[in-house]
Amino acid sequence: MVKQFESDQYYRSFKSWDHVVTMLFGILSRCDSMIEASEGLQGMRGKLNHLNLAKAPAKSSAGDGLRNRSNAFFEALYYQLAALPYLPSSPPLDLFKDGKLIHMIERHYLGGRPATMIADNLVNAFYEFC
Which residues of the chain have pLDDT under 50? Predict the structure, then answer.
């Protein structure tokens, strides 16, 4: 999709993935601006590898990307994710006993369910198998 929309064409260090992660971080952290989101990511430098980011975006790069990058890429990304039969979520939750898998909650079961329902499933599996 990045190639299709050439969304990285004019950006040397602030790639489309970095932009998406920065915007999602800003939304989930309730940031009021891209500058605030960039500063928040800069404060988490040691943990950025978990987000597949080499470094936190500079405030100016994030602002330029927000102003200048075509929204067609983000629109297509949104519709591609919305068309999935289930929302992407974390990997499955597995319960092991003596090194053997005894219970698994598939990722499609995790998406869209309340945390209490998932916790009840794990607690019931623990009592049943352990």
Answer: none
The answer to whether residue 88 is domain-embedded is: no
Whether residue 87 is contained in a domain is answered as no
Q: Specify the pLDDT at position 86.
A: 61
User: Which structural domain range is residue 122 located in?
Assistant: 93-129
The answer to whether 56 and 41 have CB atoms below 8 angstroms apart is yes
pLDDT tens string 33-68: 989 999 999 998 888 888 888 899 999 888 888 888
Q: Which residues lie across from 93 on neighbouring strands?
A: 105
31/69 same-domain check: yes
Question: 7 Cβ partners below 8 Å, 6+ apart?
Answer: 1, 16, 69, 70, 73
Q: Give Cβ neighbours of residue 12 (< 8 Å, ≥ 6 apart).
A: none
